[in-house]
Specification:
By secondary structure, the chain is an all-beta fold. It contains no helices and four strands. It has a domain of 39 residues: N-terminal domain of TfIIb, CATH 2.20.25. The chain has a four-stranded antiparallel beta sheet with strand order 1-2-3-4, with no helix packed on it. A hairpin with a 5-residue loop joins β2 and β3.
């Protein structure tokens, strides 16, 4: 079963078809120019934590909002 990405080709901007080959590897191929790219397997990434830096929240700043003024209640 394949999936289409309309205008997803990095080379020509054409339509890209996503599918698996006989060895169960994912690939994408452009219908217009023939661009071919073998996609990485996500199984190797499963379970690995993403590296993120904590974002400090200031004394007068509420999470999810732009900096607020402490003198307004």
């Amino acid at each position: 079963m394949g999936v289409w990405k309309l205008k997803g080709c990095p080379r020509c901007g054409g339509d890209v078809f996503l599918d698996r080959d006989e060895e169960k590897r994912w690939y994408e191929q452009c219908l217009q120019c023939g661009y071919f790219n073998e996609l990485k397997d996500l199984a190797g990434f499963h379970g690995q934590p993403r590296e993120r830096e904590p974002v400090p929240v200031g004394k007068n700043q509420q999470p999810g909002r732009p900096e607020s003024r402490g003198d307004i209640t």
